[in-house]
Amino acid sequence: MSDSDTDAPGDDPVGDDSVGDDATDEADGGPTSQAVLLDVLPTGRPDDGRPGYQKSPIAYGLGVDDFRLYEVMLAADADVSVSDRIPLDDDRYATRYREIDADDLTRNAAAEIEYAVADVVESDERRFVDFFNEAGPITLRLHQLNLLPGIGKKLRNKVIDERKRGPFESFTELTDRVSGLHRPREVVIERIVEEVREDDLKYRTFVGRNE
Questions:
Q1: Hey, which residues does 12 pair with through a beta bridge?
Q2: Helix extents (H) in the chain
Q3: What is the pLDDT of residues 69-109, one digit of tens each?
Q4: How many whole angstroms separate alpha carbon 127 and alpha carbon 169?
Q5: What CATH class has 124-197?
């Protein structure tokens, strides 16, 4: 993952308080616009040895559109909590941010990943149901549906055959129409969490994709 960071519009880099170098404006192609907060550190990073008055509040977040992980420098007066969604391109909330790896998260942030992913999936069900409607082959032998936990060749073919009759409209409809597909919402969440946490996966379906 990239370690470049991004300024919210109208902000200038702020010395040692920045969370990275080589800033890029969101308007020039930033990868996401909103993040779910995983952890909030009002007094900055614990490994920052500077006096408190020199440190800025930071947070760790998960991109709503792309499931990338971010370290965010919060605006001094931003009133935010874990599980809040904030716009990364609004300097009332975030002055700078950078993409990070799962290993860079605090313990509390890492523990919140699954809850945050579940919240995103549940709040935008159709987006993830459409994955079952639109998923295609990756290689001659591997299909995107096979990346979901518990979906092998037979169950994959059932989904493909059934969607030819008409698109799925909900997770409940998926369960009703595809015999053997018992927990489609949960398997999507499980796969997204795996993609967020594991840096060495060969294939990624959800992380890094802007819908």
A1: none
A2: 107-123, 125-134, 153-163, 171-177, 184-197
A3: 999 999 988 999 999 999 999 999 999 999 999 999 999 99
A4: 10
A5: mainly alpha
